[in-house]
Amino acid sequence: MLTAQPTLTGKPDPSAATRPTAAIGRGTHVPGFQFKVKEKSRRGLVRAVISGGDSKTREKLSSDHEYNNGSVFSSPSGAWIDVRAVITIRKKMKEKINDKIEDQWEWFVNGIGQGILIQLISEEIDPVTKSGKSIESYVRGWLPKQLSHPYLVTYAANFRVPSDFGCPGAILITNFHGKEFHLMEIAVHGFKQGSLFFPADTWIHPRNDNPESRIIFTNKTYLPSQTPPGIKDLRREDLLSVRGNGKGERKMHERIFDYAPYNDLGNPDKGEDLARPVLGDEERPYPRRCRTGRPPTKSDPFSESRIEKPHPVYVPRDETFEEIKQNTFSAGRLKALLHNLIPSIAASLSSTDISFKCFSEIDKLYNDGVFLKDEDENITEKQFLANLMRRVATVGQRLLKYEVPAIIKRDRFVWLRDNEFARQTLAGVNPVGIELLREFPLLSNLDPAVYGPPESAITKDLIEQELLQHGMSVDEAIEKKKLFILDYYDMVLPFIEKMNSLPGRKAYASRTIFFYTRTGFLRPIAIELSLPPTSSSPGNKRVYTHGHDNTTHWIWKLAKAHVCSNDAGVHQLVNHWLRTHACMESYIIATHRQLSSMHPVYKLLHPHMRYTLEINALARQSLINGGGIIEACFSPGKYSMEISSAAYRSMWRFDMEALPADLIRRGMAVEDPSMPCGIKLVIEDYPYAADGLLIWSAIKDLVESYVRHFYSEPNSVTSDIELQSWWNEIKNKGHYDKRNEPWWPKLNTKEDLSGILTTMIWIASGQHAAINFGQYPFGGYVPNRPTIMRRLIPQEDEPEYEKFMQNPQQTFLSSLPTQLQATKVMAVQDTLSTHSPDEVYLGQVHNLQGQHINDHEVLKLFEKFSSKLEEIEKTIHGRNKDSHLRNRSGAGIPPYELLLPSSGPGVTGRGIPNSVSI
């Protein structure tokens, strides 16, 4: 790459800055400075070494050749083209004094043409160098031009280009400033092809950080075999530059994408209690994360040392949050900080953590908020409290209050009802767990020598007693697809003993049976709660049904709460984190490492990769780490990520992540070629599936048309070397522990590629939206969806049973999360359910799909996709008003809007961002 290095010698003349800028032009001597350009190029350019004021040398060069900002060229035909490159840079929204001073210096350096070097690379080969023809110029201009956008400015560089130069296909840009800048795009004007655009949206690091120039490619799309000869080497070079060598600690300015196991969740140097096993080996398989390369811990050579907040974890520079997003997320984190620490201080005034004593105390979180109590005499706590109060004064008292969650906004008591408990399995925040009950008796796949008899305690007789009023036998109900199950027995039971050994946690492995009534709603009819077998109780399984007396009613409520706690843990650790966040990370790493930014698949996937690596790094730092929020507030505690790994081992398959395949696997749909997606829902009124299939179908149509457009030739998929390397790397590196599974889809045809891409885009957009943005609307009211249970259900022969009989409400509330746990998880759910003001939603025309794609046919495909999503939004609104669809409409029921494509900022309970961005 270029090794251009301007040398500034001498001391600046203070009066120079006050002199008229018009007097300083190309080749003009600036008092107090001597400028030299010493450059070495592998492209065979002849470059002059210019010393300021050496006018004789300059005149001699000009008489022999055309002079172009320090480069000497000859034009065989004698014809030249005047070309202008305009670079757009995004400035900071909030600048400090130092930033403004640095801006002044940058303007000066750019003004004298020594700040930013631009090199145009032709698509045509130079017969001498055997590389793309090349010409260069420095950006000049004393003051940047301000655009209508308040934070965008432009600079320009002028070129005189030989008429036979050809069309530029790439630009090399070198930053000689002392700090990075954010390059939005470069537009080149003056060629006969018209204005040429080079999309960037990237940070350009200073040359001191990395001497290599950055390569920015044209907005044209090329398969590897179609790459113009002049930029073919650059295409390969650019990919090599982001792969790294797998060694050393990554620096924050770098753009290196590489793989590592999850070996940074624990902190064994701080004690055994914070040690966590590595995820990503034969014993505990897991997808790979982005490598950071930090040194190992002192206590465990296999664990990577941690960087604790507020210090940032490395992610490739362009994957970090933009300023608007950072400000929004920081506000959310501050809100979480307040909600974490305020109850912590309150709890420190008591001998034990505080339970909710009545339901009105939960209501106070929304009506009155949480207030600080400055009663602690500890000096450190007082100092900390004073600091916190300053934050409160800055941010505002309103941040101490919670918004009323959508689930109780219309009906405070809706969560108590059985039909709402069941409805949320179809239209709640975790609608991907329910399955059709296809055979009886229920059997476990766990080792009976360890976990006891495989048969469930839910018998056919018990279910038939519940079905008497419906005049149906179990066999008939199964045949007619009327029985459904939420089954967490095999997933959770192996961890129950360890979970229940943790202080303040008591959990079961649950199974719940539902019956789909003739009136069109689900009804829970039996709950099985199981503990590991003991010598006195080999089965250790108890079955609960709803009854009409008050005692049975309260016990049934406790049983449902335990089911919800199981569901909340599996939702967060498996369906949310593993299946969307963690799996998308490996796809994103492979995409950057193996697909050029000119590749059509890269351009298609690019909007669906935004912010994911950054939010995942933050999660490893504060949410899923040892001692983090998830461990503190969810039943599995320190075994949370081990459960996630076990689920990856037992159930995760790429081919089953497609929405239609997942529905068929769970028995919630059957194949039907006459239907739009080739399947028919078993429960028509299944809001997640019904709306999801609309989104899936729209994505599928877009992807299939897009793939047909670029892969029109026979064997074009198999001959695409970048594409094949990409898919092989996803299987063999990103999912190394599953590399030998037989179910991985082949990548031989256009249909294969369309299926793979549709699945990835669905996961990043619709799937993540459906299971993320309802977290606070449904989980913000703790009794509706407790993330942790602290007591087992009292039995008649236990002392706790008498207390339950005397005050069942107190037993119920004391089983739920404490006030501290509840307010912690509510704050996090609120943050994770919040849309940023700069969010880009599915179907919106992203920069990459505007002028950054130089293909009108492709732009038409995206416009059609946007129009289709607008139609889908209207369809969903219509469904929510249909009184016959009881799972999404009714008195007090919040409408199902999680798969509405558009949204405004904040906690809206709707909107499908393009990517896993929160």
UniProtKB/TrEMBL annotation:
Q: What does this protein do?
A: Plant lipoxygenase may be involved in a number of diverse aspects of plant physiology including growth and development, pest resistance, and senescence or responses to wounding.
Keyword set includes Ion transport: no
Q: Which residue ranges does the record annotate as region Disordered?
A: 1-27, 282-307
InterPro entries according to UniProt:
LipOase, LipOase_C, LipOase_C_sf, LipOase_CS, LipOase_Fe_BS, LipOase_plant, Lipoxygenase_dom_3, PLAT/LH2_dom
Q: Which SUPFAM superfamilies match?
A: Lipase/lipooxygenase domain (PLAT/LH2 domain) (SSF49723), Lipoxigenase (SSF48484)
Which keywords has UniProt assigned to this entry?
Answer: Dioxygenase, Fatty acid biosynthesis, Fatty acid metabolism, Iron, Lipid biosynthesis, Lipid metabolism, Metal-binding, Oxidoreductase, Oxylipin biosynthesis
The PLAT domain is annotated at: 93-218
A GO BP entry is: oxylipin biosynthetic process
Query: Which organism is the protein's source?
Result: Rhododendron simsii
- Name it: Lipoxygenase
